[in-house]
TrEMBL record:
Gene3D superfamilies: P-loop containing nucleotide triphosphate hydrolases. Belongs to the ABC transporter superfamily. It comes from the Bacteria. PROSITE patterns: ABC_TRANSPORTER_1, ABC_TRANSPORTER_2. This is ATP-binding cassette domain-containing protein. Residues 41-282 form the ABC transporter domain.
Length: 369
């Protein structure tokens, strides 16, 4: 809500750092404003020429409150990882700002940035490639602690290590073992323990369960959820699968080709998905009830995901949208606007689609260049 107010009524003459109502809101831990990450595409052997850009993240604004879990979903390649990395400034943004606890992360120099990073940690998709195979679990956990000046020696250090392992549901004997000695689910618990070791406030978990068996996914999600309750952590949980973020997220943002197309509370998003892309994503998820399964609306997305190096004009979803209208959808990029309190949608026709006054039609994939 605050976000909508901020977007429609910027304070006219205030300095940039003071313009955002979001960054001043004490409840907001993370505020991302019009964030852009464009990767240059280079060609040439003798002369290194920039021949274009991959618009990986292209104007994302969102705010995450303290203690909240924000789920970020979208197809592979839509920019989720790049957005997560840009929040921690592991990749330099091309434009826009990230405020963490009121501070502009984009403006921090090396040492203050290092201190800030202690408060923001990332958990990666593939724990095996993100954990050094030559290091024992103890050494992996101590490394981060030492880097941020947290004592690892003596009784306090040992107690801390034991506490970390018990927090993620691993026995103390795990300390002496190496990553390859664990199952995928256990390795992800180690990845979470490593993030926790430096006592962060925010964890960006990038597809934390995508590499795991379905039976293990829920256990790891439960570990994250219990830790949040116990430690008051704030999460951004990234997934390509809506089902994964549904139960742990307070709010969910749906990304398509570098931008948010819809954002709502988890309950509202699943009850009333309003952007055509979200509707298609949700309609692809099977429903356990056979009666509902047989009768429910199914929208098959035709056409491939366009390249983020050459995104479609106007609404980026227009090449695949069953509700596309000439010529506004092709010409004008829709902004994320409030359709209902706390429910933002980037579609020119969201209200008509919700009311049922605009009907879907076949998508002609041949017409797509
Ligand atoms: N370092 C990079 N250099 C160039 N392109 C990149 C780089 N990292 C990611 N990309 C491109 O940016 C787009 C978004 O990637 P990514 O953020 O990994 O998406 P997701 O996590 O949603 O799968 C993709 O087209 C990807 O190929
Ligand atoms: S703006 Fe047009 S093309 Fe884009 S989602 Fe809405 S109806 Fe579809
Ligand atoms: Mg990714």
């Amino acid at each position: 809500m605050e976000k909508g107010a901020h977007e429609s009524e910027p304070l006219p003459d205030a300095p940039a750092a003071e313009q955002s109502a979001i960054t001043r809101d004490a409840d907001v831990l993370l505020a991302v404003d019009d964030l852009k990450v464009h990767f240059p595409i280079r060609r040439g052997v003798l002369f290194d020429r920039v021949v274009g850009h991959v618009y990986a993240v292209d104007g994302v604004s969102l705010a995450v409150r303290r203690g909240e879990t924000y789920g970020l979903v979208g197809e592979s390649g839509c920019g989720k990882t790049t957005l997560g990395r840009a929040i921690l400034r592991l990749v330099e943004p091309t434009g826009g700002t990230v405020h963490f606890d009121g501070e502009d992360v984009s403006a921090l120099k090396a040492e203050p940035l290092r201190q800030m990073r202690q408060r923001m940690q990332m958990v990666f998709q593939d724990p095996l490639s993100s954990l050094d195979p030559r290091q024992s679990v103890q050494s992996i956990l101590e490394e981060g602690m030492r880097a941020h000046g947290i004592a690892t020696a003596g009784g306090a250090g040992t107690a801390r290590l034991k506490e970390l392992l018990s927090a993620v549901g691993l026995p103390t004997s795990a300390l002496r073992k190496f990553p390859h000695e664990f199952s995928g689910g256990q390795r992800q618990r180690i990845g979470i323990a490593r993030a926790l070791a430096v006592e962060p406030d925010l964890i960006v978990a990038d597809e934390p369960v995508s590499a795991l068996d379905v039976s293990v996914q829920a256990q790891v999600i439960n570990v994250l959820s219990d830790l949040q309750t116990d430690l008051g952590l704030t999460y951004v949980v990234i997934a390509h699968d809506l089902a994964v973020v549904r139960h742990i997220s307070d709010r969910v943002g749906v990304m398509y080709l570098g931008a948010l197309v819809e954002e709502a509370t988890s309950a509202d998003l699943y009850a009333e998905p309003s952007h055509p892309y979200t509707r298609a994503l949700l309609s692809a998820v099977p429903v356990p009830d056979p009666l509902v399964e047989d009768s429910r609306e199914r929208i098959l997305l035709k056409g491939d995901l366009p390249s983020p190096a050459n995104p479609p004009s106007g609404c980026r979803f227009h090449t695949r949208c069953p509700w596309r209208q000439p010529t506004r959808c092709d010409d004008e990029r829709p902004v994320l606007a409030e359709l209902a309190p706390g429910h933002r949608v980037a579609c020119h026709y969201a209200a008509e689609i919700a009311a049922g006054t605009l009907q879907p039609h076949a998508v002609e994939t041949d017409a797509i260049p």
